[in-house]
Amino acid sequence: MKSKQICLIGGSGFVGRHLAGELTRRGHQLRVLTRKRERRRALLVFPTLELIEADVHDSEALGEAIDGCDAVVNLAGILNEVGGKNASFDAVHVGLPEKIAQACKDKGVGRLLHMSALNAAADAPSAYLRTKSKGEAAVQAASDHLATTIFRPSVIFGYDDSFFNRFAWLLRVTPFVFPLACPKAKFAPAYVEDVVTAFADVLDDKTAFSQSYDLCGPDHYTLSELVEYTASVCGLNRKVWGLSDGMSQLQARALERVPGKPFSIDNYRSMQVDCVCATNGFAILGVEPVSLESVVPHYLGREDRNARYQTMRSYARRQ
Questions:
Q1: How many CB atoms lie within 10 A of CB 303?
Q2: Its pTM surpasses 0.90
Q3: What's the rounded Cα separation, in Å, for the pair 215 and 279?
């Protein structure tokens, strides 16, 4: 494969860091845009990566950053609106994809990979999923001048994820009984390395142009099963108490008032739709998804004490 100049938007996040590693291994040159360059200097470990400080919501700055690139990958997304400039679902999930598509047209960039979310739809129950759908539409509308591919993953797991690691930390600080909202919500967790392989594989694949792929792991689980599994892997004796629908909503309304919004009523609404694939895009793309049981114990298991300690420090904001 010919080396490409690729711009990653949202490249300093969980998936972005893994994608940067995969693209670097394949010999590509990378530009990663970030609001605070000093905070993301760890990314400079990748030898072909250029870290650029830019406001991606500024159309002029965005255009300058992607000028000369062969492809752009948009991974930007938020799970909750937490206030602040350009921190709304509309700004991040709709306005930003529109600006990226326009900047690609203006600068002659011909390839755009876009990460959406499984169950994104105009009539979805949550604002998160509805705005993700609008973002997809903005990307698809640019198909006359831009080769686009959209990915819609289920929850993504990996060593530095915010799913299993967060539940592991919460289980450790919650004694005896763990109250869990939406215990029957279903997920098909996808391994982050499988997800970034799919992204990297389609860069030059013309059959993937104008296509959308749902990405899921090989198995389905309820949220209760996933949390119970997390407790077991961590060696914690905890009773997971599944809350009723009414209590789940009450917990969501209470926790969305906590700084950082660890859980919100919009999150609750998203979980009213099972996050599993009707057709798994991994199979179409020739990627065999890895099971969580073959990966999660390596970073949550009791033998990995230092990793657990670092995770707890991170969530306690002591770094």
A1: 9
A2: yes
A3: 8
